[in-house]
Write a structure and sequence with these properties.
The protein has 331 residues and is an alpha/beta fold. It has eleven helices and 13 strands. The strands form two sheets. A seven-stranded mixed β-sheet has the order 1-3-2-4-5-6-12, with helices on both faces. A six-stranded mixed β-sheet has the order 8-7-9-10-11-13, with helices on both faces. Helix 2 (63-78) runs parallel beside helix 10 (280-297) and helix 9 runs antiparallel to helix 11 (319-326).
Length: 331
């Protein structure tokens, strides 16, 4: 991870100017509305513009509150009217993109968990001259669908980071739990784990029903006595898997992707081995700020490449430090 890369440099190049300018699972944990955030400091003197942030957030997943919080802070700084909407169903997310096009917004930030379902509406945005930035999901197809940059973690690399960590600690039979079959980012995560630990099994669960997640994972652990670690691909899923391990009487350990304050505490107390944080606050902040910068001066962050916000490993060695930021809702 110490190896220098231009993609890593792109993160630094993007984040440092953002800091200088301000002195980055129907909906997430908050209802959709129009907001400008509550960031302090001087607001940009540029003309007010309207940016739509459209995600595939499932109801109640607080991960998306973190993305939204970053977006709102950038919007407050940049004199942006932020229109946040979300829907976990791909067809309805496509309709939200079309609504933004019809509203003649000045920019669209969008997650690409199901790119095939969104390509037609994004093409209409491009034809209307609306700049697009993608975030969180769909890095591999971002440019193809018209986005000039993407803010997020390379999910295959993140999965490989987990696989390398597990292999180094001599885990041989992981179970990787996917809560939304067909989600390109989640599938890439488990593929990355399997690339480093070939005996990784995939378990599909219904992430919209935590009772079902718990029972399905419990049954799997009871049937697979050789499973030595179970991996959640989101903090709420992982917290549920902890219960499954206990109910199943399994000796399997728990690892994770993503983060919230409850998961950070579980890592600190040793209930979870580690998580790979994609730093969603940076994704929301960077996406909105990049669209403002594009309007401000035709700037295009990333140089045609994605701006990586992860992977960042959180384990017992740094979980306590990260927890204080998670409690603020920014990690």
């Amino acid at each position: 991870m110490a190896k220098f890369s231009w993609r890593t440099a792109a993160v630094v190049a993007a984040v440092v100017p953002l800091v200088a300018l301000s002195a980055c699972s129907s909906q997430g944990g908050k209802p959709a509305d129009t907001g400008g955030g509550a960031a302090g400091g001087q607001v940009a003197s540029t003309d007010r513009i309207k940016i739509a942030l459209i995600t595939h957030a499932p109801p109640g997943d607080t991960f998306w509150d973190t993305i939204r919080k970053g977006a709102e802070e950038a919007a407050a700084k940049d004199n942006v009217e932020l229109l946040y909407t979300s829907d976990a169903e791909a067809g309805r997310q496509a309709q939200l993109i079309q609504q933004a096009v019809d509203q003649k917004v000045d920019g669209i930030a969008v997650t690409l968990a199901t790119p095939d379902a969104l390509k037609d509406s994004l093409k209409k945005a491009t034809e209307a001259g609306i700049p697009i930035v993608s975030l969180n999901a769909g890095e591999s197809v971002s440019k193809q669908l018209g986005a000039f940059t993407h803010f997020g973690s390379n999910e295959k690399l993140a999965g490989e980071a987990v696989g390398e960590r597990l292999a180094a600690e001599n885990y041989k039979h992981p179970v990787c739990v996917i809560q939304a079959q067909g989600h390109v980012g989640l599938e890439a995560r488990c593929a990355g784990v399997r690339a480093k630990v070939p005996d990784t099994e995939i378990l599909y669960v219904n992430g919209a029903d935590m009772t079902s997640v718990e029972s399905t994972a419990t049954a799997k652990l009871q049937a697979s006595k050789d499973a030595d670690v179970i991996i959640g691909l989101g903090a709420p899923i992982t917290l549920t898997l902890i219960k499954s391990v206990s109910t199943a009487g399994s000796s399997a350990k728990v690892a994770s992707f993503d983060l919230n304050k409850e998961l950070a505490q579980k890592i600190a107390d040793g209930s979870v081995l580690f998580t790979v944080d994609q730093q969603p606050w940076l994704q929301g902040y960077g996406a909105v700020d990049a669209l403002w910068q594009n309007k401000r001066g035709g700037f295009k962050l990333g140089g045609g490449q994605s701006v990586l916000t992860g992977p960042a490993i959180v384990d017992k060695s740094n979980a306590t430090d990260v927890l204080k930021f998670a409690e603020q809702g920014i990690r």
